[in-house]
Amino acid sequence: MITVGTGLSTRCAVVANAHALARYASLCQEGGVVPIVEPEVLMEGDHDLGRSDEVDAA
Asked: What is the pTM of this model?
């Protein structure tokens, strides 16, 4: 889950989490299990649509 806010979810944190999720998905597939991996960006907060789009695209 990615929370939109000032100083939250740095690019490094997003990349590290993406790597961990990719590793998890790979291990699941090796074990014959279909992984469900998708990022979740919360819609809550005082940010506008542009900021939400910026975070979602990161």
From this structure: 0.57
